[in-house]
């Protein structure tokens, strides 16, 4: 990727916004890596009982359905499967 020096004389930036094609040997680009990290981090919120709608907003998803779809794609189950179960 070509580096570009901006008019302010700052150091060169990558044309792709500074993100490398792959992140530290993970085989994922930055966007994929970030999404995975956010979904995995959300497990902590789920087990603490935080509502899915609040977690989706916290992570910047447009709506809870988008968060649920990304979560299910990565982990194979919806976020509600990871919420604490109420004992009877």
UniProtKB/TrEMBL annotation:
Keywords (A to Z) from UniProt: Transcription, Transcription regulation
Membrane-traversing stretches: none
Pfam family, one: HTH_18
Residue span of region Disordered: 1-28
UniProt keyword Transcription regulation, yes or no: yes
SMART domains according to UniProt: HTH_ARAC (SM00342)
Residue span, HTH araC/xylS-type domain: 26-85
Record protein name field: Helix-turn-helix domain-containing protein
Gene3D superfamilies the record matches: Homeodomain-like
Gene source species: Streptomyces guryensis
GO MF annotations, alphabetized: DNA-binding transcription factor activity; sequence-specific DNA binding
């Amino acid at each position: 990727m070509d580096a570009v020096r901006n008019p302010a004389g700052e150091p060169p930036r990558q044309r792709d916004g500074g993100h490398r094609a792959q992140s530290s040997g993970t085989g994922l680009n930055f966007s994929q890596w970030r999404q995975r990290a956010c979904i995995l981090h959300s497990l902590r919120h789920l087990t603490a009982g935080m509502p899915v709608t609040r977690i989706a907003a916290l992570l910047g998803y447009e709506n809870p359905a988008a968060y649920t779809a990304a979560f299910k794609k990565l982990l194979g189950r919806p976020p509600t499967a990871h919420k604490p179960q109420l004992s009877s």
